Amino acid sequence: MKTKKKTYSLLVIVIGVWGYIGYQIIDALNPSIPEYKQAKPMFKDNYEYESKIDTFSIQKVARDPFLGTMHTPKSENRQEVQKTPKTVWKPIEYLGLIANQNDKDKVFIVSISKQQVLLKQGKTHDSIKLVRGDAKKITLRYKGKNKTFKLKS
């Protein structure tokens, strides 16, 4: 009989422990939602708006507060920069090169205003001077401005 009492008492303790564990699991899976009360608004409906204009004046500062130096105004004497008019180039295309193997003289074929012209280095046609050139590009001067033209493919 003594063993039955121990068995029943242990059975009650085991059932109690497992019941407590089961209650904790079920309580964690189904949390209770707290009730919220309606919040009262924090502002008033009948308020008065006061509009005061803040006045201030800007004064001239004679000394720099950070450097401690005196302020010297910049002079208004500016020289006007004369802009040079933009040079409008005629339609020019570099068409190719004719070279003599014996003389090393190169003659360049240039199309100026859709008119083919043969030019040597240093020669001028229609106020356009051939400054330098090679097989891939030439440099022309027109009204004091240089411009490089690549070989038209």
Could you explain how this protein is built, in words?
The protein is an alpha+beta fold and 153 residues long. It has a domain at 92-150: SH3 type barrels (Roll). Helices cover 18% and strands 26% of the residues. It is built from one helix and seven strands. The protein has one helix at 2-29; strands at residues 92-99, 106-112, 115-119, 124-125, 128-133, 137-142, 145-150. The strands form two sheets. A four-stranded antiparallel beta sheet has the order 4-5-6-7, with no helix packed on it. A three-stranded antiparallel beta sheet has the order 1-2-3, with no helix packed on it. A hairpin with a 2-residue loop joins β6 (137-142) and β7. The longest helix has 28 residues, at 2-29. It is elongated and about 135 Å long. The model has no long low-confidence stretch (mean pLDDT 85).
Oligomer: single chain
Strand content: 25-35%
Considering DSSP H and I runs of 4 or more, what fraction of the residues is helical?
Answer: 10-25%
- Which architecture name of the domain at 92-150 does CATH use? Roll
The CATH topology of the domain at 92-150 corresponds to SH3 type barrels
CATH class annotation of the domain at 92-150: Mainly Beta
